[in-house]
Amino acid sequence: MFASCVAGWHSHRASALPGGCVRLVRESGNPHDPNAIEVHNTHGQRIGFLLPQQSAFLAPYIDSLPISLAGRLLSPDEAGYNEKLAQTRPQLIVSVFMNPALGSTIPARTAVTSGYPQTMLDRPT
Length: 125
Hints:
This protein is of the alpha+beta class. Helices cover 14% and strands 26% of the residues. The protein has one domain (2-122): 2-Layer Sandwich (Alpha-Beta Plaits). The longest helix has 12 residues, at 52-63. Residues 106-125 have low confidence and may be disordered.
C-alpha cells in the first residue's frame, strides 16, 4: 500500500467523491507517457492519472500481469486529508495485489493484500 494523488484531476470532466474507490487501469498506448496508469471512478470514467514516477515503477509489473491495483481516495475524516489538495490533486491510497496464479517478482514490501476483497487478487486491471 502506498500514498499517491490523482494527477490531471483538473483537466477531466469526471470526478469521484472523497473516500470513494477508484480503479487503476494501464494505458500503454498513451502518447505522452508510455507507462501511464489511468485512475477511473466507479462509473468507469477517467478522472486522472497515477503520478508518472509511480507508473514508471509499476507499469512493467502490470504489463506482465503478476499484479493488479486498487485505490481509494482519502476522505475528510482521515488523517492526512487536505481539503485544498482535494480540489486539485486528490490524495489516493493505492494497494498492490499479487496474482497468485502467476507468481510475482515484485518486492515483498510493495505487495500488500489486506483491506480489499480477496477477489481483487485474481483480477488484473
